[in-house]
Design a protein that fits this description.
Blueprint lengths: L4 H15 L9 H8 L3 H13 L3 E4 L5 E4 L8 H7 L24 H16 L3 H5 L2 H20 L18
Antiparallel strand pairs: 1-2
Helix pairs in contact: 1-2, 1-3, 1-4
Length: about 170
C-alpha cells in the first residue's frame, strides 16, 4: 500500500473531527489545521473529496464547519483513504498485472495479496474504534491543552502608540 501524505492527513483530520464531534458547533478546518499542524489549503482540498465521498457534511457561514456525515462506527480508515483517491496497492503495476513488459512479474501475486490484507485490516478499523483508544485520547488531550495554553499566551489586544511628526519650520 502506498500511503502518501494525502491519505495520512485525511485519516488524521477525520480522527480530529470525530474526537470533536460532540461539540455543539461544527468543527472548522482552521481548528483541525491548528490541532494537527496541517496546511489549511491542503485540508480544503481533502475535505472537498471527503464531502464528495459522503464522509463529511459542511455548514457554511458564521458558526459553520464540518461534521461527520455518518456515525463514526460506519466510517472505516480504508474508506477515508479511498475517498481521497489513495489505493491499497503494493504492486509495481497498480494491480494491472503488466509489471514486466506487459506481463505479470514473479512477485505480483505476493504484493497483490499483501495489498488486499492491508486494505482489509484498515477496513476493519473505524473512527469509533480509534477514538476509544487510550493513546489516541491521551494525544488529543495533550493537543487540546497545548492549543489552550498558546491561546492564553497571546495578548487579546496590543497597545500601539503613534508619535507626532516634528513640526516643520515655522517658528
Amino acid at each position: 500500500m502506498r500511503l502518501t501524505t494525502k491519505g495520512r492527513y485525511a485519516v488524521t483530520a477525520m480522527l480530529d473531527l470525530a474526537l470533536h464531534q460532540g461539540q455543539q458547533r461544527p468543527v472548522t478546518l482552521q481548528d483541525i489545521a491548528a490541532n494537527q499542524e496541517i496546511s489549511l489549503s491542503y485540508l480544503e482540498q481533502l475535505f472537498a473529496r471527503l464531502r464528495q465521498g459522503g464522509l463529511v457534511r459542511g455548514t457554511r457561514g458564521p458558526g459553520g464547519g464540518y461534521r461527520l456525515a455518518k456515525d463514526a462506527s460506519e466510517i472505516s480508515i480504508a474508506g477515508i483513504i479511498t475517498a481521497v483517491d489513495e489505493k491499497a496497492d503494493l504492486t509495481r503495476c497498480g494491480g494491472k498485472s503488466d509489471c514486466q513488459q506487459g506481463e505479470e512479474c514473479l512477485t505480483h501475486e505476493l504484493w497483490a495479496e499483501l495489498s488486499e490484507t492491508i486494505y482489509q485490516f484498515l477496513d476493519n478499523i473505524s473512527l469509533a474504534d480509534l477514538i476509544q483508544r487510550p493513546r489516541v485520547l491521551e494525544v488529543a488531550k495533550r493537543q487540546s491543552g497545548k492549543r489552550e495554553s498558546s491561546m492564553n499566551e497571546m495578548p487579546a489586544t496590543q497597545k500601539v502608540s503613534f508619535q507626532e511628526p516634528p513640526a516643520s519650520g515655522a517658528s
